[in-house]
Design goal:
This protein has 19 helices and twelve strands. It is α/β, with parallel strands linked by helices and about 450 residues long.
Length: about 450
C-alpha cells in the first residue's frame, strides 16, 4: 500500500510540474534578460511615475491616468502585479531607474541626448514641441526676443530648463531664468501662470492645450523648440524587456486601448458640455418628481439633489464625462456597480437618481463624525465631487494645524486647497497624496448657491 501511494505521489508531482511548466510558457518569452526574468520571478512590475493631469491621479476614489492605465495593461500582459512608485521629480525617477529600483518610468519623458545615453525610449507618444506658457492679453509675447529681462520659471535640470538656457544663449543671455522647486510639476507651473503667481514658464504644447480646456485665458501659441520625440523609459541593457514592450504595444488590443485613453485624457474636456434640456414651465428640471421621491430617503430638501444633478450633468441623463462618470448624477462605474447599475441601467434617470441617493447615504455615514447636519452636507458635497479620500486628508491637516475639522469653509476647505502644495501633500497625515482642490471647493460653493437660488424660486 505504501509503495502504491509513493507511485501516486510521484505521478501527481510530475503532473503538477507539467502544469506549472505549461503555465509558464504562456508568459512573454524570456531569453537572457535579467530585468525581465526578475520582473516575472518577483511577480511585480515596478513603475515610477509622478502625479499629473495625464499620468496618475485619484479621482472619486479611483486611480486614473493615461500612463497608469497603460502600465496596468502592461502588467496584466506580463501576468504580474503592478507596484506604483510616486516620485517628486523627473530627476528622481531617472535616478531610481539607473539604480535598478524601478523597471520602467511610465511618464511622458521628452527625448534628449543625455537620456538616450543611459536609457531606451519605449511606448512613443505623438511628437510635440515646447512653448512659452503665458496668459492671453494685450501684453502677451509673440517673439522669443521679447523675453529680455523677463522672469521665466522652470524646474532645475528639466528638459525645459535645458531649452531655456539654450534659448537664453541664443538671444544674448538676457532672460531671468528662475528655478522652481523640484517638487513642482509641469501642471503646477502652468497653474501658477493661470493664477498670475508667475508670468511665464515653458511646457509641452499638448499639455498646455489640455490646461487651456480648464482655463481659457492660458496662451501657448509661441513655440520655443522644434518637434521632439517622447515616451516611457527603461534601461538600455533591458533588451528583452524592450522587445516585450514593443511586442505588447503593437497588439491590436493595446493600440485600441491607447487610442481610447488618448481621447479620454487628451481630447475630451473635463467640463460638462452645456446641453439644451427642456424644462417644464415652473419646474427646476424635467426630473423634479424623482428628486422629490428619493430625497426623503436621506432627509434632504429635494432641491439640493436637483442642484447636484445640475452641476453634475446639466440634467442630461445621457451625459458621460471625460473620466467615465455617467447619467444624471454622474456616477463612476465602480460606484454605479456597487449600487446595482450596469452600463445600460446607469442612464435610466430614476435608477441613476436612486443610486446617487444611496451613494450620498454612504457618504453621510463616512462623515458621521461631523455633528452639524448643515456642515456635514458640505463635506458630503465635497466628497461627492472628489471622493472621500482627499476630504479625509484635509480634515487630518485641519486638525493637525489647529483648525476645526468639522467646519468646511476656511477650515477643511482651506487645507483641501493646500493639498496641491508639496509641504502639505507630503505631510505624514496625508494618506492619498496630491490633489487639486480648486474644482471641489468651487463645486461645494456653486452647489449651495444653486440650492439657495432654487429655494428662492416661487
Amino acid at each position: 500500500m505504501q509503495k502504491r501511494n509513493y507511485h501516486i505521489l510521484i505521478l501527481f508531482s510530475v503532473l503538477l510540474f507539467a502544469s506549472c511548466k505549461q503555465q509558464k510558457t504562456e508568459l512573454p518569452t524570456v531569453s537572457g534578460s535579467t530585468d525581465l526574468k526578475s520582473i516575472i520571478s518577483n511577480d511585480t512590475l515596478r513603475v515610477a511615475t509622478m502625479y499629473g493631469s495625464t499620468s496618475y491621479f485619484l479621482f472619486r476614489d479611483e486611480y486614473m491616468g493615461f500612463d497608469y492605465e497603460m502600465a496596468t495593461n502592461l502588467a496584466n500582459y506580463l501576468h504580474v502585479n503592478l507596484k506604483i512608485n510616486i516620485a517628486k521629480s523627473e530627476a528622481e525617477m531617472t535616478q531610481w531607474l539607473e539604480e535598478g529600483k524601478v523597471d520602467v518610468i511610465c511618464y511622458n519623458m521628452i527625448e534628449t541626448r543625455e537620456l538616450k545615453k543611459k536609457f531606451a525610449f519605449v511606448l512613443p507618444q505623438a511628437d510635440s514641441y515646447q512653448v512659452l506658457v503665458q496668459n492671453i492679453g494685450a501684453n502677451a509675447l509673440s517673439d522669443v526676443t521679447e523675453l529680455e529681462d523677463e522672469d521665466v520659471y522652470v524646474t532645475q535640470n528639466s528638459i525645459y530648463h535645458e531649452r531655456l538656457e539654450m534659448l537664453n544663449d541664443e538671444i544674448g543671455g538676457t532672460i531671468n531664468i528662475k528655478i522652481a522647486a523640484d517638487s513642482l510639476s509641469e501642471d503646477d507651473l502652468i497653474d501658477m501662470v493661470a493664477e498670475n503667481k508667475i508670468k511665464y514658464t515653458i511646457s509641452d504644447h499638448n499639455l498646455v492645450l489640455l490646461h487651456k480646456s480648464y482655463d481659457r485665458k492660458l496662451d501657448g501659441h509661441m513655440p520655443v523648440s522644434f518637434n521632439q520625440h517622447n515616451g516611457w523609459l527603461i534601461r538600455n541593457e533591458s533588451r528583452d524587456l524592450k522587445n516585450t514592450i514593443e511586442k505588447w504595444e503593437k497588439l491590436a488590443e493595446s493600440e485600441q486601448l491607447q487610442s481610447t485613453l488618448k481621447k479620454k485624457y487628451w481630447d475630451q474636456s473635463p467640463f460638462f458640455a452645456l446641453r439644451r434640456i427642456t424644462i417644464p414651465k415652473g419646474a427646476i428640471s424635467p426630473f423634479d418628481h424623482l428628486f422629490r421621491k428619493y430625497a426623503s430617503d436621506i432627509e434632504w430638501d429635494w432641491r439640493l439633489l436637483a442642484a447636484i444633478a445640475f452641476h453634475e450633468s446639466r440634467f442630461d441623463s445621457q451625459e458621460v464625462s471625460w473620466a467615465g462618470a455617467a447619467g444624471l448624477m454622474q456616477l463612476m462605474p465602480r460606484t454605479a456597480s456597487n449600487f446595482g447599475l450596469n452600463r445600460k441601467t446607469i442612464f435610466d434617470p430614476e435608477l441613476n437618481i436612486e443610486a446617487g441617493v444611496q451613494y450620498i447615504k454612504s457618504l453621510n455615514m463616512s462623515f458621521r463624525q461631523v455633528s452639524s447636519k448643515s456642515e456635514r452636507i458640505k463635506f458630503i458635497l465635497a466628497a461627492y465631487n472628489s471622493g472621500p479620500a482627499h476630504i479625509l486628508d484635509a480634515m487630518a491637516l485641519a486638525k493637525k494645524h489647529g483648525k476645526n475639522p468639522q467646519i468646511w469653509f476656511n477650515n477643511v476647505e482651506y487645507f483641501l486647497l493646500k493639498e496641491s502644495e508639496p509641504q502639505f501633500y507630503n505631510d505624514p497625515v496625508v494618506k492619498y497624496g496630491y490633489y487639486r482642490g480648486k474644482e471641489t471647493a468651487h463645486y461645494v460653493q456653486n452647489a449651495l448657491q444653486t440650492f439657495d437660488k432654487y429655494i428662492k424660486r416661487k
